[in-house]
Write a structure and sequence with these properties.
- Helix 1 crosses helix 6.
- 24% of the residues are buried.
- By secondary structure, this protein is an all-alpha fold.
- It is built from nine helices and no strands.
- It starts with 15 loop residues before the first helix and ends in a 14-residue tail after the last helix.
């Protein structure tokens, strides 16, 4: 007992699962701040107030921890986008609005996670994590576009290309918005859909370049 009669405080030890989650949270923050190459097990351990062997025990090293962090971010973003596109009976424009807003909402609520995805695996790297994720999203959008193109007697083969264009626009706009945070994500989503949707509405079935035209 303490001198004043109150029981002495006792530090509580984390369970293995709690410690693992703590290290994932700390690692996520360090990777977002410094990038994979500039991050170290030493710093992650120091911020978590543990010894380096604890990090190795749970993840085998920096690479293992990073892989867990990235996998969770990819799963979170894909799940959010899948939910936004789940209702096939909705009008295609409404689906596009939901998907754009879901993407921007993920960025808004998971800034560290998004920075990790785009910093170490930029869209320009074909083999990168973010590029692979966008490919998965584009395939889902392609299914929706193909159905609509077929309904209006457009070449279904073009769905793949248009899906890549739309998803690329959203991805790059999202990276820009992450740094500006203005205007609101609702306004940004509405403008993106406005540009893409009205382009699709007036889509030519066999577009060609205008020879001799000047930029």
């Amino acid at each position: 007992m303490a001198e004043n009669g109150a029981p002495r405080g006792r530090s509580t030890r984390m369970t293995g699962r709690e410690r693992r989650e703590q290290l994932v949270t700390v690692g996520r923050s360090v990777f977002a701040e410094k990038g994979f190459d500039m991050s170290s097990v030493e710093e992650i351990a120091a911020r978590a107030s543990v010894s380096k062997p604890i990090v190795y025990e749970h993840f085998g090293g920096k690479e293992g921890l990073y892989a867990v962090v990235v996998d969770r971010e990819v799963s979170t973003l894909l799940a959010d986008l899948e939910r936004s596109l789940r209702e096939q009976r909705l009008h295609p424009r409404l689906l596009m609005e939901r998907a754009a807003l879901a993407f921007l909402s993920y960025i808004d609520e998971n800034e560290d996670g998004f920075r990790i995805l785009v910093r170490d695996s930029p869209v320009s790297q074909a083999g990168g994590t973010f590029s692979s994720l966008l490919t998965d999203v584009a395939q889902r959008v392609e299914e929706i576009l193909a159905a609509q193109l077929k309904l209006h007697s457009y070449p279904e083969r073009d769905a793949t290309m248009y899906a890549q264009m739309l998803v690329g626009m959203v991805a790059y706009t999202g990276q820009w918005w992450l740094e500006t945070r203005t205007p609101s994500k609702e306004i940004v989503a509405s403008r993106m859909v406005n540009l893409s949707w009205y382009g699709l509405v007036d889509l030519q079935k066999s577009p060609t370049l205008h020879e001799g035209s000047k930029a």
